[in-house]
Amino acid sequence: MNFRLGESFISPPTTSESINHSHGRHARSSSAIPKSLASLANEYRRLAVDCVRVLRLEMQLEAIYHMQEMTKREYVEDQDAEDPDDFIISLTTQIARRDEEMAPYITESERNYIFGGISSVAANASIKALAQMKSINLLGVQQICRNSIALEQALAAIPSIDSEAVQQRLDRVRTFYELLNLPFESLLGFIAEHEYLFSAKEYLSVLKVNVPGREIPADAERRISQILGH
C-alpha cells in the first residue's frame, strides 16, 4: 500500500464516530458543572454558618465589654436617675443598629441566634459585678434594675427572639439586687426558700457589700452557710 507524504496512517473518523466522541465530551462537561456548583454551594453554606457564629460571638463580646463598666462605677446615688447608665444606652443602641443592618440579609431565626446570647452574658456579668462593689444604696439598686429593663426591652424588640428566656435571665438580676433591700432576717428567709436560685458565693456577696443603713449581725456568714449546707 502506497502513502503520500503527509497522509495520515489512521483513517479519519466517520461522521457517526465524530458525533459520538463530541457527545461524550459534552456529557462529561455537563456532569462536571453541577458537581462543581454543588461543591461551591456547600462551601458557601459552611461559610455562612461560620459568619453567623462569628456574629454571635462578636455580640457577646460587645456585651461583656459594656457590662464591665459596672465594676468601675459607684452605685451609691444621691438622687433617682431617669435614664439607664451610659454604657447600657451604648449597648442597646449597638444592638438596635446591628439588627437593622442585618435584617435585609439574615433570617429572623439566625438573628435570634446572633443576639440570643446577650441576655445570658449580661445577666452573669451583672451578678458577678456585685462582688467587686464596695457600697451600694437603694437608689443604686434601682439604677441597676433600670439598666436590666432597658436591655430587656432592646432585645425583645428583635423579631423572633425568645423574649421569655430574656425576661427570665434579666428578672434574675433584678431579684438578686433587690435582696440588698431586705433586712437580714428576711434575707435568711429568702435563702431558705430559694436555696438554689443563686450560688453560695453569690449569696455571700449580697451579705458582704456595704449597704448604708443595713444591719448585719456578726455571725451572719455562719448562719447563711448553715442554711446552704456549707
TrEMBL record:
Q: Which InterPro entries match?
A: Sec8/EXOC4
Q: Which GO terms describe its biological process?
A: protein targeting to membrane; protein transport; vesicle tethering involved in exocytosis
What keywords does the record list, in alphabetical order? Exocytosis, Protein transport, Transport
> Which intervals of the chain are annotated as region Disordered?
1-30
Q: Which domain of life is it from?
A: Eukaryota
Q: Which GO terms describe its cellular component?
A: exocyst
Family as reported in the entry's similarity comment = Belongs to the SEC8 family.
Q: What the protein does?
A: Component of the exocyst complex involved in the docking of exocytic vesicles with fusion sites on the plasma membrane.
What this protein is called in its record is Exocyst complex component Sec8
> Which species?
Zea mays
**What would be the name of the gene that encodes this protein?**
SEC8_2
